[in-house]
């Protein structure tokens, strides 16, 4: 494709010239071109170029214009936003009930098919095994001059039987798994980013402790929820580096704004261009392609790209001499099509991967106003004003909204329901549970639904939200760091306000509370909470058969390798350093090899690290299995470093 402006060759169907950024002519012809032109004209599309023509408003026609009019405090007839009435309610209820019955029926049939296949495979393996034992293991019928061919046949039969038995095991495992996993966890391919505070350098490691990259500069780290990828943002140079377990991509241009998809495969970002223009670009980490998707004389902000890169949302704006926002517009790009204008003075907050749920707020007096959701083309008012943090589940079908001292839940555009008359500060997750923090605006949790989950309130009370969306207070904890949830989310250990160590069992059925011990200053527990170590002042104990067993005294710090279920602790002396010890299953303390004169220890996603001086230089060692440590880096004071976690603008 030849650019008319600079005369250079570009890729087929490219929208902009890779050399001069000029718009390229469309390659469609005949009927296809005519249909595209007519469609875009009807829908109000406009392709971005130097004379950018603002598209007509799609979702803010007369209905939304009325919706955001000054009349009735900016809210039009409520029945036009969230339809009500007994007839519509019955229809929705019937549709949901039918859908649930259909899904339940499909799951039942799927389970029956799995069970039938299990029986069939098991019967085959039993028949093959019986035949083999009759023909091959009965020594009375085996001739002494058995040939190599017969031996080979016997081994072949054994291989078939082994394969059948393995298939049975796999099918049993598959049939026992829940089709919808309640929690998403940090991946085994997670990366760790450590940034030095004493010098401008950052280190990127994999979960095994291998240093992948060393970057010069002071970076903030923005992770995906499962820590499979991260963007390193240089706060001085204002450029970015994308990293994952096997890829590094450096963006040379100054970035005004950026966002990464939750699968870690797409990055949408804004950079300044020439002649007062700004470019919005999309980078595909899988194909390593980087394309321009929009350019305007306005700034781009509130960027969002969904997994697969199929839906992109963003806001454009200008600023007056008083640095006030002006001409705010929000856009959507679906399936690589031309940008669609979502609305004026509307800011898209978040969206589901299929675009079925879009959350946005209206600008009122240049600040956040009413908060809405568009679900399946229908609009619902969720809050008159966004004044607190929002909490989303992983597919953005649910949101928790704070309003006037209470919290509400909205599910797929349904009318919000009050669930708690106190402000929520967090949703409790198991060890290594995945969560993405979007600055101070909202969190996205790796959970299927908020139903059956534990909510932490600002007064340190813990509430269980049942399937009927009724909340029940089940505990009051000392602080947010003193609670641990089991991997299945059904059991919890915490330190209460009286320093008692308490265990709750069977949370999702009927809570049973038991005080384990008293006067606790800290503790560690395995992922299933079956192994519990606790500190009473500086003495370390292990709980076994409801009895306390002293492991060691003078313990200064405590960490756990959750994969190996090994506790690692530091006993410091008067010099300020100490010796590392470990214990497994409550065994007596054993010294860690090389763990003398240690300054401090920390937990990583999949292990423990410690720091000590070696030949006059601080060195860091990492543990991934048992109590074995390996050297990973030096020249960094780990005890003063910042491990920046998931943050998003």
Task: Please tell me about this protein's structure.
Strand 28 (461-465) and strand 29 (471-476) form a beta hairpin. Helices cover 16% and strands 40% of the residues. Strands 23-22-21-20-26-25 form a six-stranded mixed sheet, with no helix packed on it. The chain has a four-stranded antiparallel sheet with strand order 4-5-6-7, with no helix packed on it. A four-stranded antiparallel sheet has the order 8-9-10-11, with no helix packed on it. With 649 residues, the protein is an alpha+beta fold. The model is unreliable at 28-94, 128-180 and 642-649 (pLDDT under 50).
Topology:
Elements: H1 30-43, H2 62-67, H3 78-81, H4 86-137, H5 148-176, E1 191-195, E2 201-206, E3 211-216, E4 219-223, E5 229-234, E6 240-244, E7 248-251, E8 257-260, E9 266-272, E10 278-284, E11 289-296, E12 299-305, E13 311-319, E14 325-334, E15 340-344, E16 346-351, E17 357-364, E18 367-375, E19 378-383, E20 390-392, E21 398-403, E22 406-411, E23 417-420, E24 424-427, E25 435-438, E26 442-445, E27 453-457, E28 461-465, E29 471-476, E30 483-485, E31 492-495, E32 501-505, E33 512-517, E34 522-525, E35 532-536, E36 539-544, E37 547-552, E38 557-561, E39 566-572, E40 578-584, E41 590-591, E42 598-604, E43 607-614, E44 617-625, E45 628-634
Parallel strand pairs: 20-26
Antiparallel strand pairs: 1-2, 2-3, 4-5, 5-6, 6-7, 8-9, 9-10, 10-11, 12-13, 13-14, 14-15, 16-17, 17-18, 18-19, 20-21, 21-22, 22-23, 24-27, 25-26, 27-28, 28-29, 30-31, 31-32, 32-33, 34-35, 35-36, 36-37, 38-39, 39-40, 40-41, 42-43, 43-44, 44-45
Helix pairs in contact: 4-5
């Amino acid at each position: 494709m030849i650019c008319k402006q600079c005369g250079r060759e570009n890729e087929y169907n490219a929208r902009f010239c890779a050399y001069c950024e000029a718009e390229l002519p469309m390659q469609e012809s005949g009927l296809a071109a005519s249909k595209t032109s007519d469609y875009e004209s009807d829908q109000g599309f406009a392709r971005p170029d130097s004379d950018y023509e603002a598209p007509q408003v799609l979702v803010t026609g007369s209905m939304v214009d009325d919706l955001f009019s000054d009349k009735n405090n900016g809210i039009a007839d409520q029945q036009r936003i969230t339809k009500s009435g007994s007839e519509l309610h019955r229809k929705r209820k019937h549709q949901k009930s039918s859908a649930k019955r259909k899904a339940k029926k499909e799951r039942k049939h799927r389970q029956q098919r799995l069970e039938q296949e299990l029986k069939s495979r098991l019967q085959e393996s039993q028949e093959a095994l019986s035949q083999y034992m009759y023909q091959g293991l009965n020594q009375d019928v085996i001739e002494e001059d058995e040939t190599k061919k017969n031996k080979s046949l016997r081994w072949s039969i054994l291989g078939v039987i082994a394969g059948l038995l393995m298939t049975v095991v796999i099918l049993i495992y598959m049939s026992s798994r829940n089709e919808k996993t309640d929690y998403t966890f940090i991946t085994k391919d997670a990366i760790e980013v450590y940034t030095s505070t004493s010098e401008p350098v950052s280190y990127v490691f994999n979960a095994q402790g291998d240093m992948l990259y060393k970057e010069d500069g002071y970076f903030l780290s923005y992770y995906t929820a499962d820590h499979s990828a991260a963007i390193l943002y240089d706060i001085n140079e204002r450029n970015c580096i994308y990293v994952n377990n096997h890829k590094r991509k450096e963006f040379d241009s100054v970035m005004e704004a950026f966002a990464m998809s939750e699968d870690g495969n797409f990055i949408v970002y804004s950079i300044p261009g020439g002649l007062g223009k700004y470019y919005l670009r999309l980078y595909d980490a899988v194909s390593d392609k980087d394309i321009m998707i929009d350019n305007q004389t306005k700034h781009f902000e509130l960027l969002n790209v969904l997994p697969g890169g199929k839906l992109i949302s963003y806001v454009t704006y200008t600023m007056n001499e008083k640095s006030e926002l002006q001409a705010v517009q929000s856009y959507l790009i679906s399936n690589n099509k031309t940008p669609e204008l979502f609305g004026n003075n509307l800011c898209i907050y978040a969206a589901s991967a299929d675009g079925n749920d879009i959350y946005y707020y209206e600008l009122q007096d240049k600040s956040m106003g009413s908060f809405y959701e568009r679900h399946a083309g229908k609009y619902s008012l969720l809050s008159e004003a966004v004044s607190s943090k929002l909490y989303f589940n992983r597919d953005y079908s649910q949101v928790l909204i704070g309003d006037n001292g209470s919290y509400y839940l909205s599910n797929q555009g349904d009318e919000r329901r009050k669930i708690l008359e106190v402000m929520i500060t967090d949703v409790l997750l198991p060890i290594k549970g995945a969560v993405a923090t979007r600055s101070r605006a909202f969190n996205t949790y790796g959970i299927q639904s908020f139903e059956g989950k534990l909510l932490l309130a600002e007064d340190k009370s813990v509430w269980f939200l049942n399937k009927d969306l009724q909340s029940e207070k089940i505990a009051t904890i000392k602080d947010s760091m003193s609670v641990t949830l089991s991997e299945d989310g059904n059991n919890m250990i915490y330190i209460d306000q009286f320093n008692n160590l308490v265990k709750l069992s069977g949370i999702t059925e009927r809570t049973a509370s038991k005080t384990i011990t008293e006067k606790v200053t800290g503790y560690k527990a395995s992922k299933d909470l079956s192994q519990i170590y606790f500190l009473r002042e500086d003495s370390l104990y292990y709980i076994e058969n409801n009895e306390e067993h002293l492991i060691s005294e003078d313990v200064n710090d405590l960490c756990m390798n959750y994969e190996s279920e090994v506790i690692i602790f530091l006993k410091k002396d008067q010099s300020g350093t100490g010796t590392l010890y470990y214990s497994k299953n409550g065994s007596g303390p054993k010294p860690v090899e090389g763990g003398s004169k240690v300054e401090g220890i920390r937990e990583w996603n999949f292990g423990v690290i410690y720091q000590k001086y070696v030949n006059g230089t601080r060195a860091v060692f990492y543990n991934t299995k048992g109590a074995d440590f390996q050297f990973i880096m030096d020249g960094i004071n780990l005890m003063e470093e910042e491990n920046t976690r998931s943050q998003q603008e």
